[in-house]
Design a protein that fits this description.
By secondary structure, the chain is an alpha/beta fold. It contains 14 helices and twelve strands. The chain has a six-stranded mixed β-sheet, covered by helices on one side.
C-alpha cells in the first residue's frame, strides 16, 4: 500500500504523502542533531583499530538503547556475531508466521580508525550518518497511522574492521545479512557522488627466509633475505610498465633485518593489490606472486606467500538506487560530480563491495566541508570538526528519503532488485566465463564448465 492510501487529513494533507514522510524524516534528523554530533565526537576522540573498537561499540549500543531517543525503543544486540559488532532493530510490525514478510532495510555504521592518525577516513561520520538515517526513517514510519500500511523492519548494523580484516565479510559469512532487502551507508570524501568505482583488493604478506652470517668476515656463508625483498620490490616496479592503468600495487618492507653486519636471515613485506574487478584482480595476483617467487629463486631464499583471509570485492553499482539518491540529494542542495568524473576516476576499496554481491546496496560519497585528502592528518581534523556536521546530517537525510522511496514508490524495489540481479550476473560471468561446448569423440556434446 502506498502512503497516499494511508495518510489522509492533517495540516500537511495538501502535500503528496511521500514528500510529507520525507519531510518528517529530515525533521527527525535535525531534532536529534545534538546527540548525533556527540555520538560522532565520542567515537572520533577515542580512535580504535580494527576488531578493537570496544569503546565505539559501547557508545553505539548505549545510543540505541537510550530512553532519550524519541519514539519506540530499539531492540539492541551488543557483540553481535563479532565482539565489536552490534545490531539494532525496530519494525512497524514484528515478523509473523502468517501474513506478508516485512521489508527489511539496513543502515551500516563503521567506526574503526587508522594506526597513528586516528579517524583520517571519517568513520566516526559513517557511524553518525547510519544512525541518523535510521532515526529519520523510523520517525517517518512512526508518523503513519497505526497499524502501519506496510510491514517494515529497520536494521542498524555496526560493522567493525573496514580498514583491515573486513568485518562485513565476517558478518556476511555469519549470516548477518541474510534476509535483508536493501542496505545503505555513506562514506566521507572530497566530493558528492552517488557512486564511485571502489575496486577489488587483495592483501598479501611475503616472508623470505635466508641464512645469517657475518657480513664482513664471511658473507658468502649467508643467504641474504633482504636481497630477496629488494629484488621483489624492484620486480614489481618493472612490472608496472605492463600493468593496466586501473591496477594498483603498493606495499612496504615491514622487516628488513637486524644489523648491518649481519646478513639478514628474515625479511617481511606487506602489499595491497587492487583492480576494478575480481577477474582482473586474479590476473594481477598471479603476476605479482611470480615477482615474489622469482626473487626467492634468484637469491636462494625460501619464500612464504600468504594472502589475507578476506578479499574485498568491487562495489557493484545499482542505477535505480543511485538515481533515487541523487534526486533526493539535489532537493537538499547536494551538488554531485559529473558522470565523466565517476567513469574516469578511481577510488579505494571497501568490504561494502562484498555486501553488494549478496544484497542490493547504495554506497554514496559525501563532501565534509574540507578539501583535505582521506588518510591524512588534515582529514582527521576535518572529520572531527563542527563544520562536517552539516554535510553528514544532510547525507543522512538523503539516505532516509531514498529508503522511503524504496518502501513506498511503486515498482522501485523491483527495479532495484532487477539491477542487482543483472549487474551481479554480468560480474559473475566475467569471473567464471562459460567455455564453448566442444564435440566429443562419440558425438555427444560435452557439458560447459565454469
Amino acid at each position: 500500500m502506498r502512503p497516499q492510501d494511508a495518510q489522509q487529513g492533517g495540516p500537511a494533507a495538501a502535500l503528496p504523502a511521500l514528500e510529507t514522510l520525507k519531510q518528517r524524516a529530515c525533521e527527525s534528523v535535525e531534532l536529534n542533531a545534538e546527540r548525533l554530533s556527540a555520538l560522532s565526537r565520542d567515537i572520533w576522540s577515542r580512535p580504535e583499530l580494527a576488531y578493537e573498537e570496544h569503546q565505539a561499540h559501547d557508545t553505539m549500543t548505549r545510543f540505541f538503547s537510550s530512553g532519550e531517543l524519541p519514539g519506540a525503543a530499539w531492540a539492541v544486540q551488543p557483540r553481535y556475531k563479532l565482539s565489536t559488532a552490534f545490531r539494532a532493530e525496530w519494525g512497524t510490525a514484528a515478523p509473523q508466521a502468517q501474513g506478508p514478510r516485512p521489508l527489511r532495510v539496513a543502515f551500516l555504521c563503521e567506526y574503526d580508525a587508522l594506526p597513528g592518525i586516528g579517524h583520517a577516513c571519517g568513520h566516526n561520520l559513517i557511524a553518525e550518518v547510519g544512525a541518523a538515517a535510521a532515526l529519520g526513517l523510523k520517525a517517518a514510519l512512526e508518523s503513519l497511522p497505526q497499524p502501519a500500511p506496510a510491514a517494515v523492519q529497520i536494521t542498524v548494523l555496526g560493522t567493525p574492521a573496514e580498514e583491515q580484516g573486513g568485518g562485513k565479510i565476517d558478518l556476511i559469512n555469519a549470516g548477518a545479512f541474510d534476509g535483508l532487502d536493501v542496505v545503505f551507508m555513506a562514506h566521507p570524501s572530497q566530493e558528492n557522488a552517488a557512486y564511485l568505482p571502489d575496486v577489488a583488493e587483495h592483501d598479501v604478506t611475503v616472508k623470505y627466509y635466508g641464512k645469517a652470517s657475518h657480513a664482513a668476515a664471511y658473507p658468502w656463508e649467508g643467504v641474504n633475505a633482504l636481497d630477496a625483498a629488494v629484488l621483489a620490490y624492484n620486480n614489481l616496479s618493472v612490472l608496472r610498465q605492463q600493468m593496466k592503468p586501473t591496477w594498483r600495487v603498493h606495499g612496504v618492507i615491514k622487516n628488513g633485518g637486524v644489523k648491518p653486519n649481519i646478513i639478514p636471515s628474515y625479511t617481511e613485506l606487506e602489499f595491497y593489490l587492487r583492480a576494478p574487478s575480481m577477474k582482473d584482480l586474479s590476473v594481477l595476483i598471479e603476476k605479482v606472486e611470480n615477482c615474489f617467487k622469482s626473487a626467492a629463486l634468484a637469491t636462494g631464499c625460501k619464500v612464504e606467500i600468504k594472502g589475507g583471509e578476506n578479499d574485498y570485492y568491487n562495489v557493484l553499482p545499482n542505477e535505480s538506487l543511485q538515481k533515487a539518491y541523487k534526486e533526493n540529494g539535489k532537493k537538499l542542495g547536494i551538488e554531485f560530480i559529473s558522470e565523466d568524473c565517476i567513469l574516469n576516476g578511481l577510488s579505494g576499496s571497501t568490504d561494502f563491495g562484498n555486501v553488494t554481491f549478496v544484497v542490493p546496496g547504495l554506497h554514496p560519497y559525501f563532501y565534509i566541508g574540507s578539501d583535505a585528502l582521506n588518510h591524512t592528518e588534515q582529514y582527521t581534523e576535518a572529520a572531527g570538526s563542527q563544520n562536517a556536521q552539516f554535510y553528514a546530517l544532510r547525507t543522512a537525510k538523503a539516505l532516509a528519503m531514498t529508503a522511503l522511496d524504496v518502501i513506498f514508490k511503486p515498482g522501485l524495489l523491483e527495479e532495484v532488485r532487477e539491477d542487482f540481479r543483472q549487474v551481479k550476473l554480468k560480474e559473475e560471468r566475467q569471473i567464471n566465463p562459460v567455455e564453448p561446448i566442444k564435440e566429443s569423440g562419440v558425438g555427444i556434446g560435452a557439458c560447459a564448465s565454469h
